[in-house]
Design goal:
There is one protein chain. By secondary structure, the chain is of the alpha+beta class. Among the domains are: 68 residues; 84 residues, no CATH class. 66% of the residues lie in helices and 13% in strands. It is built from six helices and five strands, in the order H-H-H-H-E-E-E-E-E-H-H. A five-stranded antiparallel sheet has the order 1-2-3-4-5, covered by helices on one side. Helix 2 packs parallel to helix 4. The protein is elongated, with a radius of gyration of 61 Å.
Length: 273
């Protein structure tokens, strides 16, 4: 069958419609061509904005992480210091426990000793009194050097024995101290200045003590020397030949000269008795 023959108006309308569609398609393509870069630019801006926001958020998060890390390190350091202090305190407490145990044992021992103090005191007091009396007699009978000093020491010791506010231990210590001082006199050399009465006349002289072996004097003008005679318990004037020896002895006692041999009138031990 043959196709129907189109009339000219109908053909024209179809051609116009086809051209319109072609123009429309071209316009749409043109619009798409311009819209694609614009959309791409907007997408890129949004992507950049998102990245920048993510970077800022990441930087803030990293800063917070760093702060937390620093705080953690600081707390860890403090924790370690606390552990060291705890270890030190444990060691110290252990040592204190040992000391306390030792002190408790010592207190127990002292308690037992204190129980016998009264008995010991009753035994020691008579002994100290006898020691003081013996010391007083010894000083009276000894060579008369430093008479005031030694007599005062014995007198103070006797007063101490009568005091109730002084412990027996202190009394005993002071008694032994007095004995030690007297003992030292026997092995030392010294000089001192004092008054001497000879023939009813009082003079200031320099005394020279050599242990308990010799007690001599020399007048301040060095013109007269003398010695104590223990057997006769009196002072004896020496001849001038001893002046130099006594003078050197005084210088040695004052540490103004080196120790040296001295020629002095010393009686033998058998005569001294």
């Amino acid at each position: 069958m043959s196709s129907p023959v189109e009339t000219p108006p109908t053909l024209v309308r179809r051609r116009l419609s086809a051209r319109a569609r072609a123009i429309a398609a071209g316009l749409v393509g043109l619009l798409l061509a311009f819209a694609a870069p614009l959309a791409s630019a907007q997408s890129l801006d949004r992507a950049v904005a998102v990245r920048e926001k993510a970077n800022r958020t990441g930087a803030q998060s990293q800063g917070r992480i760093d702060q937390i890390a620093d705080e953690t390190d600081d707390l860890l350091g403090k924790y370690r210091i606390e552990l060291q202090q705890i270890d030190a305190l444990r060691s110290y407490n252990t040592q204190l426990e040992k000391l306390l145990a030792s002190q408790e044992a010592e207190i127990e021992s002292l308690g037992k000793e204190i129980g016998g103090v009264t008995v010991i005191g009753r035994q020691v007091t008579p002994l100290m009194l006898r020691m003081v009396d013996a010391l007083s007699q010894f000083v009276d009978l000894d060579v008369p050097f430093l008479p005031e000093e030694r007599a005062t020491r014995v007198s103070e010791l006797k007063k101490l024995m009568d005091r109730s506010d002084v412990a027996d231990a202190e009394k005993y210590r002071r008694t032994l101290e007095a004995y030690q001082i007297e003992n030292e006199y026997g092995r030392t050399i010294e000089t001192y200045r004092g008054n001497l009465e000879v023939g009813g006349e009082s003079r200031t002289v320099d005394f020279l003590r050599i242990g308990r072996v010799a007690l001599l004097y020399q007048t301040l003008d060095a013109n007269e020397v003398g010695t104590w005679d223990q057997a006769e318990r009196s002072w004896k004037t020496l001849d001038g030949s001893y002046n130099e020896a006594v003078r050197r002895g005084l210088r040695i006692a004052r540490k103004q000269a080196a120790p040296d041999l001295l020629r002095l009138p010393i009686k033998p031990a058998e005569d001294a008795r």
